[in-house]
Amino acid sequence: MNDTDLTKPFCEQIRDAAEKQTPLSITAGGSKDFYGRPGRTEQHIDTTAHCGVLGYEPSELVIQARSGTPLRDIEKLLADNGQMLAFEPPHFSETTTLGGVIATGLSGPRRPWRGAARDFVLGAGIINGKGEALRFGGQVMKNVAGYDVSRLMAGSLGTLGLITEVSLKVLPRPASEYTLKQVCDQAEAIRRFADWSSRAIPVSAACWHDDHLYLRLSGDENSTRHAQHQLGDGLLETLPDWWNSIRDQQHPFFNRLDPLWRLSIPPATPPLALDGDWFIDWGGAQRWLYSPEKPEQVRCLVASVGGHATLFRNAPENVEVFHPLPAPLLKLQQRIKHAMDPAGILNPGRLYPEL
Amino acid sequence: MDRDDFIAGLHDLPAHCILKDEAELRPYECDGLSAYRKLPWLVLLPETVEQVQSILRYCHTHKVPVVARGAGTGLSGGALPLDNGVLLSLAKFNSILDIDTANRLARVQPGVRNLAITEAVAGHGLYYAPDPSSQIACSIGGNVAENAGGVHCLKYGLTVHNIAELKLITIEGELLTIGSHALDSAGYDLLALLTGSEGLLGVIVEVTVRLLPAPEQAQVVLAAFDSVATAGQAVADIISKGILPAGLELMDTLAVRAAEDFVHAGYPVDAAAILLCELDGERHCVESQIEQVTRLLQESGATEVRRARDEAERLRFWAGRKAAFPAVGRLSPDYYCMDGTIPRQHLGKVLSTIARWSEEYGLRVANVFHAGDGNLHPLILYDANKDGELERTEEFGGRILELCIAVGGTITGEHGVGMEKINQMCVQFNEAELQQFHAIKHAFDADSLLNPGKAVPTLARCAEFGRMHVHHGELPFPELERF
Fold first, then answer.
1. What is the DSSP letter of A97?
2. Which of A135, A225, B45, B451 has the most other CB atoms within 10 Å of its CB?
3. What is the CATH number of domain B332-480?
4. Model confidence over A15-47: pLDDT tens digits?
5. Domain total for chain A?
6. Contact present, A90 and A248 (Cβ < 8 Å)
7. Predicted ipTM > 0.90
8. How far apart are the CA of B49 and the nearest CA of chain A, in angstroms?
9. What are the angstrom distances between the C-alpha of B32 and each of B37, B56, B336, B378, B413?
10. Which pTM was predicted?
11. A-chain residues within 8 Å CB-CB of B472?
12. What are the structural domain ranges in chain B?
């Protein structure tokens, strides 16, 4: 695909929409169209053609690219140089773009040990709801000039601005990765995860499903082999495809049309008393659930342990996708939305009806 | 508003929490940037969250501005007081409230010192990673306000990467919980927006920090170079080989000599630059990486490569680096610490330009550099008692910051904008970007009562400053075109 800069036409389209109060939806690869609320939009902006890597110097550990750049192209370029996006962004399809990765802010199995999408954002170019092209942050690791607007974009689902480009910190790929598989129940897996996470063991992913825990170790050959001895019995294998199937939700667990809950809670929380099928990821901090329980019951219990619950896929009608916010916090978020998008035309209703 | 009338209305605050006499106010006239001083109108030292709420509500009603202050170690004048507003000290909020070892979190009050967190959790084999040089004294509330860094940022991140939840009081006196004890929370990521907001958006009354398992081993290698550029290239070589050091620090000859005179770290004083490279983690991994780094440094042209023989020597190597600022302070009556960040590939060129300007201004400069993450701390040596020397120093400093922008960097890596770099904000950001900042500020604090005049300049101030924002490629430094 040819590198193209469409910032100017995007600015014009957004300015025009703001004048006419026409709600716009921002899309690219469409790989995460299922995620979030449907929103209420009349026109679309497709950022797919706005693509190209703008800068990559492996020894600086930074890559900068336009939002329409396909994720697979970025990951290929990094892999060729022995590097990676350490938050393991999901590829829900081949068409996933960088802009969508940041706008949804989703991260894969490595997240608890290496950081989330937002943690790797160093800077962003955006177009706000007034059609102004703005730059925040930069291409350096440390930058505290001005409010951190670029990280605010991560997970905002395009409701605060159209992302035109992003600079991300990248990390070296580990020399070796092994997966330890052990038989145990959910409660025991969560206990082991907490214990191992508190020790200097090179863990890079930890899942539990169907009475098995899976622990991925990353590092040099010596340290991963050594760690195995500390962890007790278990089969050690290299399972890269298995971890990708968790990251991309290609694992059979995710192959259902029922509402899929994503529960984000403190990792050491013991198993929650909710009926259903569980898949534990992020060492206990991200728990996937198909459950016959009422949505308000799920949310109430999750809130009581200090977390939040999202209907990640197949949300029933009339149930909010994202966890309700306390009134004062929602009010503040509305004011922030207004500060970025005064006419309220960017992906309105995609995150919450009020944003 | 009349000060006595204002004090009379502070019903919820005991008398011992109110400082109003000049002798009591004097210690609060500046923070770590002592070149900027102003006697505060009034200092309040609340002891409970409810008192903070009622103070802010009261200030909001009477439109009295508020400057929050932690330990006062900030280096950009962010806690510089006002002569018409309250200086709100959080010093009495100094308790560690809860340590949750299973989830690796510590819930602390904002006045708790950075190092005190690690000391409190060390028994559990855990620690709090960000370690600014002032970690003995600086408080976690201030660390959040400034998004403080330290020498381990490349591997472990800044404050923003190491906190989970904040309790914040808005200017209206409302208590908000931002973030959570999970790994993310619903809605916008306000935790990121608030970290580094320099007290302009709210007052932090509680912080939950993330803890990490203490590394099994840490080992440091010291390398000497006969030029700063060669040392800079060695840094690139290490990182290109897929090694992520826990700390990677470069000091130039003036900084090396000052540190050596001060703490006798055993540094080679005839070197043009030294590099400290620390590796930490699992024992076997550290061992093999140390060997690899030693080889790389030798190949990169180091004149000497030395591995700390034992833990005592490792700590001595670091003591020299951590004492570099006060050590340089012994060379001169005053020094001015800069904080630009640059893409590392421009290090040699930036340092040689600074050296040239140093001769032009007749002011010596020592350079201390967080080489791993590109954060440069030139220390300009001056004498405030000499007529015009502070002004020349500030002009020189301003040019260094603008040079950082010109090579694609930023005016502040970890010290914040505060009062000090407010003019350079006009160079780094254009009008629309500054207006966007003001709109965000308005969403939190419509009357601009929280830390007014800091961090984000008004457009009028930028017009007066008279320097245009310049986009990539059209630089204000014609002499830099060859870069």
1. B
2. B451
3. 3.30.70.2740
4. 999 999 999 999 999 999 999 999 888 899 999
5. 2
6. yes
7. yes
8. 18
9. 10, 25, 11, 16, 17
10. 0.95
11. none
12. 1-214, 217-326, 332-480
